[in-house]
């Protein structure tokens, strides 16, 4: 039985040990991916013919590879079902297949805790002998299975509550004496309130691991006041655990089996630590269907330093919004990628923000750009690029470096659609 504060020794590795291990795993993953015709074409289209995995010397190599977006997966899977040709293992040899909204088809493979969520549950205090009330859905999507596998891998018993009605769940929670909860944050207070309403004893519940929704401070405090300690984890259907809270409650520690990058939205370019950008993840241990540089559409930032809990991996600041900032102007969709193309065409590397506003009965676009160098002719060149790339007219405003907020937002639509 594991009596340590840590799930395993990998959580406290030195940076050099972690880097060496990740490089080995990354080389194996890339070598397998290049044997797949779909990935080979993606690399070719990105100007990366003949990748030799043995030449990879640092995880930063990933920045040279093309981004894979969830919207890409939807199109690829529709064109070549069920997995867009990315799977290296035949569908019939997978353990489970799932379908998430989009639709996006997901799967899991062999292994005691294939999604690796056990690490997050352990950090939340789940231990052998606990009884876990799992209220995640077991149907279509993998969430229920993710947390079920994780809990049983630790040695917990699991009640598969799923999405049954609240009263039935409250009676089961009290009847089994469950002392741990897995599910969305907002449902747990309702579940406990229902138990109170029915005069049921749910006081055995002391710990919870939540995901798939924001944990508001007031909800956490209310549960803490009842003696329930709640920890968040960042888990996605496509590849499992990304990061998780620990008892230190100091940012979210990244899982040991993924490489996380924070990139400027609309690009694949990493941003400096501390700057808000889009979360991009490569799952090192999923070889059945490699997901390399999967852009999640979520915004976060790297939190510098090491967690006070003793875990040494990088940390994320948590969920800071969505990177998908597409809007429509004068009947045309406007995307962050188009802003990135304007900046690239005009040689601008600083922050930028496209502000969309309403003046009378007209939509106006203004591209604000941070630039501290020679600006002669820059406005005219950028306005010309906007017209070409967006097929719309827009204005350009040059701002000094440090003017724009560090919030990862590329498109700021200020129009009031209710007015």
Written account of the structure:
The protein has 419 residues and is an alpha/beta fold. It has a domain at 327-413: ANL, C-terminal domain (GMP Synthetase, Chain A, domain 3), CATH 3.30.300.30. The chain contains ten helices and 21 strands. The protein has helices at residues 15-34, 37-45, 70-79, 118-123, 143-154, 166-176, 187-197, 217-225, 336-345, 378-390, and strands at residues 68-69, 96-100, 104-108, 131-134, 157-160, 180-183, 207-210, 229-236, 240-244, 252-254, 258-263, 277-283, 294-300, 302-303, 315-316, 327-329, 332-334, 352-359, 362-370, 395-399, 411-413. A nine-stranded mixed beta sheet has the order 5-4-6-7-8-9-10-15-14, sandwiched between helices. Strand 4 (131-134), helix 5 and strand 5 (157-160) form a beta-alpha-beta unit. Helix 9 (336-345) crosses helix 10 (378-390). It is globular and about 70 Å long. The model has no long low-confidence stretch (mean pLDDT 92).
From the structure above, extract its key features:
419 residues; GMP Synthetase, Chain A, domain 3; nine-stranded mixed beta sheet; AMP-bd_C_sf; Phenylacetate-CoA ligase; ligase; ANL_N_sf
């Amino acid at each position: 039985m594991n009596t340590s504060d840590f799930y395993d020794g990998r959580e406290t590795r030195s940076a050099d040990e972690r880097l060496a291990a990740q490089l080995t795993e990354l080389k194996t993953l890339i070598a397998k991916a290049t044997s797949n015709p779909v990935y080979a074409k993606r690399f070719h289209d990105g100007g990366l013919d003949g990748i030799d995995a043995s030449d990879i010397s640092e995880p930063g190599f990933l920045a040279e590879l093309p981004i894979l977006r969830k919207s890409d997966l939807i199109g690829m899977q529709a064109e070549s079902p069920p997995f867009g040709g990315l799977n290296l293992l035949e569908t019939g040899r997978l353990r489970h297949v799932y379908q998430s909204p989009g639709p996006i088809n997901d799967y899991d493979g062999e292994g005691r805790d294939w999604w690796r969520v056990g690490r997050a549950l352990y950090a939340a205090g789940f231990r052998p002998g606990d009884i876990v009330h799992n209220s995640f859905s077991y149907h279509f999507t993998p969430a229920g299975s993710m947390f079920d596998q994780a809990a049983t891998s630790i040695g917990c018993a699991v009640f598969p509550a799923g999405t049954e009605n609240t009263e039935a769940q409250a009676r089961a929670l009290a009847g089994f004496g469950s002392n741990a909860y897995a599910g969305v944050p907002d449902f747990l207070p309702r579940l406990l309130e229902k138990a109170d309403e029915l005069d049921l004893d749910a006081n055995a519940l002391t710990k919870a691991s939540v995901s798939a929704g924001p944990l508001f401070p007031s909800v956490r405090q209310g549960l803490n006041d009842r003696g329930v300690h709640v920890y968040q984890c960042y888990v996605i259907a496509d590849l499992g655990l990304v990061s998780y809270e620990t008892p230190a409650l100091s940012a979210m520690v990244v899982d040991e089996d993924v490489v996380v990058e924070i990139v400027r939205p609309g690009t694949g370019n990493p941003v400096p630590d501390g700057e808000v950008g889009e979360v991009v993840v490569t799952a090192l241990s999923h070889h059945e269907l490699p997901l390399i540089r999967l852009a999640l559409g979520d915004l976060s930032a790297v939190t510098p330093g090491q967690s006070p809990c003793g875990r040494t991996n990088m940390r994320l600041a948590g969920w800071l919004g969505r990177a998908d900032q597409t809007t429509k102007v004068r009947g045309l969709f406007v995307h962050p990628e188009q802003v990135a193309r304007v900046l690239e065409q005009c040689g601008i590397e600083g922050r930028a923000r496209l502000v969309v506003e309403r003046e009378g009965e007209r939509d106006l676009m203004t591209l604000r750009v941070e630039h501290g160098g020679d600006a002669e002719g820059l406005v005219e060149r950028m306005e010309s690029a906007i017209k070409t790339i967006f097929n719309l007219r827009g204005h350009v405003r040059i701002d000094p470096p440090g003017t724009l907020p560090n919030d990862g937002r590329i498109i700021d639509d200020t129009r009031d659609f209710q007015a």
